[in-house]
Amino acid sequence: MAPTEHAKDPERVAAGLKASIKNPNVSPEAKAHAQQELDKLLKEQGSHHHAVPSTSPQGSNRVLGGYKATLHNEHTSEEAKKHAREILSAAGYTEREPDESEHTKRVLAGYKASLNNPRVSEEAKQHARDFLKQHEAYGERQSREILSAAGYHERVSDEAEHNKRVLAGYKAALINPNVSEEAKVHAREYLKEHGAL
Questions:
Q1: What is the dihedral of CA 186, 190, 192, 195, to 10 degrees?
Q2: What residues have CB less than 8 Å from 31, skipping those under 6 apart?
Q3: What is the pLDDT of residues 76-92, one digit of tens each?
Q4: Which of 17, 70, 118, 176 is deepest in the core (most CB within 10 A)?
Q5: Cα–Cα–Cα angle for 191, 185, 124, rounded to 5 degrees
């Protein structure tokens, strides 16, 4: 076998060395050796102790997600938040607060997601149903505003075209294996009400 077949992921090696350094069951000699190896690895990588470059996009996203969470954690020091901003800035992320329509969209999406989550209690699901019912008209108007702000109004020029696409979406839901039976029942009812089934 060629030596390249057993190439080690530097990110994982660094993680193992850091774990050895922090492990209370590791001898001082082994900790010193792990620190030397980590320093050597980081020097080869051209990096510092806080951020070993991720070789996988998924790992990189998780690391950046951790730094984003740091910014919003009230128990995090200002120094740590400053460091997180520096890392995120270097990765091209700019910190911004979501606007009201984006926030509303996310809240409604969260309630909708809870309805299909098996880990959510029936009481919480009922609360989500009640909330969504109360905000149904507002949510529909809000959705139109969001689509309009995104320039979607240029592609869907009139109400008839919009309604046609809504009906097509419900028809697609009927044949989608990832759609729950409850959602399919709702789709059938909607299509019958609008004479499309």
A1: -160
A2: 20, 21
A3: 888 888 888 888 888 77
A4: 17
A5: 125
Nearest to 83 by CA among 48, 43, 42, 35: 48
Angle between helix axes 57-72 and 78-90 (nearest 10 degrees) is: 140
Query: What are the sequence ranges of the domains in the chain?
Result: 9-42, 99-155, 156-197
141-186, pLDDT tens digit by residue? Answer: 555 565 455 554 444 456 777 778 888 888 888 888 888 899 899 9
- Provide the H-helix boundaries in the chain: 10-22, 28-45, 57-72, 78-90, 100-115, 122-134, 136-149, 152-155, 159-175, 181-193
Among positive and negative, which fits the CA dihedral 172, 177, 180, 182?
positive
Query: Token pair of 81, please?
Result: 């938040």
| Phi, then psi, of 51 in degrees rounded to 5 | -150, 95
Q: What does pLDDT average to over the chain?
A: 76
Of 192, 154, 156, 150, nearest in space to 171 by CA:
192
Rounded-to-integer distance, Cα 174 and Cα 180, Å: 9
